[in-house]
User: What shape does this take?
Amino acid sequence: ADTVPTLALAVFVSGVAISPTFITAFGLIERHVPPAMLTEGVTWVTTGIGIGIALGSFAAGWMVDTFGPQNGFWVSVAAGSVALVTVLAGQCRLATPDCDPSECEAAIVPAG
Assistant: This one.
């Protein structure tokens, strides 16, 4: 991005991707996490997103300080590539029917 309008457009396009990502993530949580553990599942994903944002900001800042402003965007390219590989690796697991709580790996502990 050589100009401010081009940078604004790039940031806008990046921002447009956030809403569908959140909708998809929370839909997957609802589909795969037993109802008794839904709040915990949402909390884990929300925490992971926050950590990812913090690490991405750190990495992009380091890239900008070390290699210049235009190279900071390579962090986004690398993160997108890792996300794509992760999705492709877990696609079979995510495409399975709804999770049956009695067959899930995580045990449901009743509140008491």
About this structure: Helices lie at 4-16, 18-32, 38-67, 73-94. Residues 4-94 form one domain. The longest helix spans residues 38-67. The chain has one domain: 4-94.
